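Q: I'm teaching a short session on how sequence maps to structure, and I want students to see two examples side by side rather than one. Could you give me a first protein with its sequence written out and its structure tokens following it? Keep the formatting plain so it prints cleanly on a handout.
A: Of course. Example one:
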Amino acid sequence: MNTLNERLRNARQRAGFDTATRAIDLFGWKNSTYRAHENGQNNYGVEEAKAYAMAYGVTPSWLLIGDTKETSPSSTVQKTAQPHKHNCVNVISATALLLKDDRDNIELITKLDECVQSLKKKNGLI
């Protein structure tokens, strides 16, 4: 599974921006902030994901959690079972924020439930 920064880099490249500088210049983003997001130094939140998603033609959900039905350009959805490898606390937070705007999104609700169940299991609650 790709990380937050890897999905951002992938989206930029697939949108036709060979360098981060080209995207930064075109969209007027703060250089150090964008680079920290793309290189994984800092995570980005829902508002940044919305801006990046609009610029790159992907969804904020895909940028933030990566494994919803939405995918990056030119990629395909893999429906086979994947190991649960991510920081559930970050995914739960991002998913909850995204659900504020799209309360009926079953893929996001499913992802939220998977993370809650994973944390329960990890903490011996189930």
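Q: Perfect. Now a second example for contrast.
A: Example two:
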Amino acid sequence: MSPTVLRARGLRFYFFSREEQRPHVHVQASRGEAKFWLEPEVELAANHKMSQRSLGLALRLVNENKHEILAAWRKHFRG
């Protein structure tokens, strides 16, 4: 299960249900995807063929929506 927590500017932000415990979000673009840590600071964890432009946009959107994404993380994983 991979619940989508946000869709913005052509990007999909989602979680994998059975993954590591450190809060993070996956971001899918039309080409490629990336993973961002949410704590202690927003930080790129992995990039799989996402363009630098899409990465920059994703990073900005993760930072702008960090509190909402973390609230969704806590609700999903701690139910």
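Q: What should students look for in example two?
A: Point them to this: DSSP finds two helices and five strands in the chain. Also worth mentioning: The two ends are 15 Å apart (CA to CA).
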